[in-house]
Amino acid sequence: MTSTDEQYDLLVVGGGPAGLAAAAQARAVGLEVALVDERATLGGQIYKQPGVGFVVRDHASLGRDHLAGRVLIDAAERSGARVMTRTSVLTMRGEQVVLLAEGGTARTVTARRVLLAPGAHDRPVVFPGWTLPGVLTAGGAQTLVKTQRVLPGQRVLFAGSGPLALAFPAQLHGYGVNVVEALEAGPAPRPADALRLLAAAPGNSRLLADGLRYRAQLLKAGVPLRYRRIVVRAEGEHRVEAVVSAAVDASWRVLPGTEERIEVDTLCVGYGFFPSVELARVAGCAVQYDEDLGGPVVVRDAWLRTTVPEVFSAGDGSGVEGSLVAVDEGRLAALGVALDLGRLSGVHAETAAVPLRRRLRRKAAFRRALAPMYGVGPGIYELAAPETVVCRCEEVSSGAIERAAAVTADVNVVKGYTRAGMGLCQGRNCSRQIASMVGRRHGVPIQDLAYSTARSPVRPVPVSAFADAQLQDEGFFTRDD
């Protein structure tokens, strides 16, 4: 690993809505800015762009999300911020941040402030058959359909909850996917829900219109949308051949005798998202638990400062609230950084923040109006059978985790006993499931359990990225043919 003389006022981590908006805003007030993203293209998940080498001659043909993303990307690139794609942040402490460009070696740069905007990833749901080929997360299916124009299957079932359960099946159908059924774990809307949403409509008319449009599209296409149902298993020999669903109660727990089987070749799962808080935790930022915002969320003040003075946090990586919130949070965080570094006075920063805070308050009101309809139930963590693989990286079953949990309530001890969470994904896919199992075994709510220890690097990297070139091998690591 090498130290460099790279110095920035602000290093933005993540090229999605929050990061792009922050970079352009920070440059507009005169800050020296760098933006890093581990992907090859900017835009994040919601505004994901076609891959390197693709030429888009008609951006409008790719839809409203693509156009919205292009506006943010173009603004960030024109701003003069240094943009580094295919570059990951491995760890950070104070003003020192360790970067790794794809194929390169780790290097340390200095940033007076860091804005974490890593976004979120699909909420994994563990049930028998969840590892079968043909089971996709909403994000995975979105990548296939939106950016690569590949149909995920011939008969697709969507199962999930939240606004995504309306939007995504409708979008898939619009791209030509044969969606045979959509399942929503939450309840059907009631008159009281409609009244709450209408009360929260000011500033959110676009979101309401989108929801109505998606519902109309499903009705027109004849796609059944069934409420209070959840996937309990996927069946198949070498890939998905059928999906079994069941009715659930208000806690998303399965009601006996309600199972139904439908033959499909693809299951798309969209039960929400988890914030990517790995870097925040490595940096020492405080987190708190809110299942409806994705679980562990970063504690922030009015300017989106975390509990670590040099670190700010914005967007879905701080708590999942959607791309429109992420854009305004990115801009608000940039103003906060400029205020901290003396580039803006308190009066100018507060004045610039007024419309941002107004829109964020309105989005928060809309989210509160939706919450009674889409609260995540604990039953989502109770679907695995003893033989179901929970940790895919290390191939650790639910039964093995249950046996380890029988003798300890410490998630880290369970991890040490079983190796669950030690694989390539570093627990991104299994840590919440493991914590829930430990909590149930000992009668401790998941929000009261200590998190597994945050460790660097937060992404798997080759040893060569850190190796000291001056050290000699002397044959110990050379294959003898």
What does this structure look like?
The chain is of the alpha/beta class and about 475 residues long. It has 3 domains: about 190 residues, FAD/NAD(P)-binding domain (3-Layer(bba) Sandwich), CATH 3.50.50.60; about 150 residues, 3-Layer(bba) Sandwich (FAD/NAD(P)-binding domain); about 60 residues, Arc Repressor Mutant, subunit A (Orthogonal Bundle). Helix content is about 30%, strand content about 20%. It has 12 helices and 21 strands. Strands 1, 2, 3, 4, 5, 6 and 19 form a 7-stranded mixed β-sheet that branches. Strand 1, helix 1 and strand 2 form a beta-alpha-beta unit. Helix 1 packs parallel to helix 2, helix 8 runs antiparallel to helix 9 and helix 10 packs across helix 12. The longest helix is centred in the last third of the chain and has 29 residues. The protein is globular and about 65 Å long. The mean pLDDT is about 90.
Quickly give the structural class.
alpha/beta
What's the average pLDDT? Answer: 90
Contiguous helical run count:
12
* Fraction of residues in β-strands: 15-25%
The number of distinct β-strands equals 21
- CATH architectural group of the largest domain: 3-Layer(bba) Sandwich
CATH names the topology of the largest domain as: FAD/NAD(P)-binding domain
Oligomer: single chain
Q: Radius of gyration in whole Å, from Cα?
A: 23 Å
Distance between the termini: 31 Å
Low-confidence region ranges: none
Principal-axes shape call = globular
Tally of domains: 3
Helix content: 25-40%
Q: Which CATH C-level class of the largest domain is it?
A: Alpha Beta
Main sheet makeup: 7 strands, mixed
The CATH homologous superfamily of the largest domain: FAD/NAD(P)-binding domain
